[in-house]
Amino acid sequence: MATKLATYGYINAKLRTRLSKMLEDPELLTLLRAETTSEVLKLLEDTEYHAAAAAFADTGDLRLAEAMLFETEVNFFNDIGEQVKGEPGDFISALVSRYEVETLKRAIRLWFERRIKGRDIGNEMDYLYRGFTGLRVEELIEAGSLEEIAGLLPQSSYGAVIAESAGTDISQLGLFPVETSIDRYFFSRLLESLNDLSTSDRKIARKLIGVEIDLENLERIVRFKDLYGFSHEKLVDYIIPSGVALRSRDISGDSSEIIKSYVAGHYAGLAPLVESLGREKYSSLVLLEAVLNEVLSLEVKRALLGYPFTLGIVLSYFFLKRREVRRIVLILNAKAYGLDEERVRSLL
Known about the structure:
The chain is mainly alpha-helical and about 350 residues long. The chain has helices spanning about 5-20, 25-35, 35-45, 50-60, 60-85, 85-115, 135-140, 145-150, 160-165, 170-175, 175-190, 200-225, 230-235, 255-265, 280-305, 310-335, 340-345. The protein is built from 17 helices and no strands. The chain starts with a helix and ends with a helix.
């Protein structure tokens, strides 16, 4: 078995260099203070996101720039996966398949809009990533039914999952059941990929992924309870299992109290951030996003402070890079739609 140094020595050095090039808070605030979307993208020309800046400069199409940001992000992690071999490499491949899942869900949403809602989706297909082998997005969107979509996908993966969801009344329930089934399958595969890792790598990965599942579930609790009025019994059907600390038995009652209890029990230092939760449901979503960012940042920092030659460096980079791209997209949309700068700053 390869030593930790042999497995992670090169990638550790490379990723720490990349981490040093990530946009710091002052740089993000500079982007936020730009007057227009064009100015934001102009500032990105000399960064790793130059392809998005070039796409916007050529077309003036913000959606295309966002699509290029997604493609750049995928390329970042494909590159990492190619450089880490053996069991850690298999885990990273499972981790990066998240982008395939996101693309699949986007395609199904367009199918839903076109086939079930009867809406014109225009040129929306132009913005879908097409780099995943076996994910023929045009055919998925043109399919006549969920069963047909399932048949277009490998039955060893998401095809079977979608086939099982095909009996749900999506005209009434929407895509919540389908997307939840896809998400659950993704996380179950990701957790299974931990089994072949070393004890130290498995411990680090299990903690970070488990925390991410917790945070995903907290967001679902707020959205489904407060915005859609789901009962506790109905909400249980949409929770992702295998989080670190949040279980189905913990999600009864008021959503703000659930979040406060979670934070107080595991991140007491962040308790002041959630004191105002529950006063107004839409602001709760905004505040929750800030809390989730802080929780994930704390876990990533812990992973980076440990022994350097572990999977922690890869996972930390993964989460931090994803957050950086989300922040850039948030700023671009803030400029495009004239969102309040102070409100956006609270989400960065």
